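Record type: monomer structure entry
Structure origin: computed from sequence
Chain ID: A
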Amino acid sequence: MKITLLGCGTSVGVPALGGLGWGRCNPKNPKNRRQRSSVLIETNHVTILVDAGPDIRNQLLDAKVNKIDAVLLTHAHSDHTSGLAELRPFYFAHKSKVPIFSNIETLNVVERQFDFLFTKQSGSPSYFVPPMTLNKIGLGILEIGNCSIEVIKQNHGNIDSLGFIFNKKFAYSTDVVEMPEVNFDKLNNLDLWIVEALRDEPHEAHAHFNQTFHWIKRANPKKAVLTHLGWESDYDYIVSICPDNVYPGYDGMVVKV
């Protein structure tokens, strides 16, 4: 299983607009340039995308992705969903609708915002076919090709997000500030855990470094990679505070498990 961290930034990325720029990050280090968070999972049979934010076109071009078998959405925030329309060419090329999977709360938001992707509209051109389908999932096991995915619930401030565990080897947990106790048995002793750690200071919707390091110590993965890194968090600084076998992520990072 090949995992590509397409983007490891926050909702504003690094550098950010509005005068924030590079924040505390060294602009000379290319690993500090961060697009919005997304990850790609490839097995011998399927290619699965988790989240599709506003950078997704360039991310998938860089990763040379020609086919997507499924898209999993962690939650409905725009930095994780606003690039869905960019995935239309996968239907044009393969004439197979791209299935979008998430909980009902997220699907309801996505359907309102991108109705034309799922249902033929009265004003649509005659040649246009809605290129995607909506698929509701709950907690538990989701099977996509030869990939068995356990769906877990995470707290993300005033909403919940979804985490995903692939083939009991790799887990992806972003946009999380409280990890329910029931999840730790499922996250225990993985080969790889990509998990959020925004910055040093606590945040009401995102885990900070010490909090995430505590989770990693409990789950004891062979390797952990930090994602959803803010403009407050310089790459080399993160390296200096990481425990053994914990590493800051960077856009384009590839790990095989």
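Annotation 1: The longest helix spans residues 209-219.
Annotation 2: The chain has a mean pLDDT of 97.
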